[in-house]
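About this split. The held-out portion is used to measure sequence recovery: a designer receives only the structure tokens and must propose an amino acid at every position. Recovery is the fraction of positions where the proposal matches the reference. Here is one held-out target exactly as it appears in the evaluation file.
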């Protein structure tokens, strides 16, 4: 699965097309929604960002996470060519399994584990008592009910393939 941030629906669609060409068909996509949790990305991405989640038919595992993040960075660079902002799309790959949601990051933090190639892994949500549970460091938009519902739906869809 991956989380996308972009300032325009066309940019989300372009990212999806590139991701499907690289990672295969999308099995489940969330509706784009306004991302209002922070202004952190505005200097490089512009205002009015939207969040969308994509879950792929072929789920990723922990052994692929560093490679997926490196490939996502390369795709972001391709999408930036000729764009009106330095970073038109943020692509954050991760994987959902029976127990958690794990995301990849290029940013080091005390709760992240080095997995190679300049990439760290972060367990962002735990699946307990029938639902995803946030952790102290879980990003605010991953705590939102609609995000948790989408992730639970993707987990349920993916379980037979995990």
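Reference sequence for scoring:
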């Amino acid at each position: 699965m991956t989380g996308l941030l972009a300032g325009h629906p066309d940019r989300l669609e372009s990212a999806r097309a590139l991701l499907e060409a690289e990672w295969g068909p999308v099995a489940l996509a969330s509706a784009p929604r306004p991302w209002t949790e922070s202004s952190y990305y505005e200097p490089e991405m512009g205002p009015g960002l939207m969040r969308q989640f994509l879950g792929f038919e072929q789920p990723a595992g922990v052994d692929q996470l560093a490679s997926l993040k490196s490939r996502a960075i390369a795709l972001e660079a391709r999408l930036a060519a000729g764009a009106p902002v330095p970073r038109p799309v943020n692509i954050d790959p991760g994987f959902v399994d029976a127990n958690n949601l794990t995301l990849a990051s290029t940013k080091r933090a005390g709760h992240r584990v080095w997995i190679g190639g300049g990439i760290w892994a972060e367990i962002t949500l735990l699946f307990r008592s029938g639902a995803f549970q946030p952790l102290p460091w879980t990003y605010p938009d991953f705590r939102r009910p609609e995000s948790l519902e989408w992730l639970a739906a993707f987990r349920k869809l993916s379980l037979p393939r995990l």
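Annotator remark: The two ends are 13 Å apart (CA to CA).
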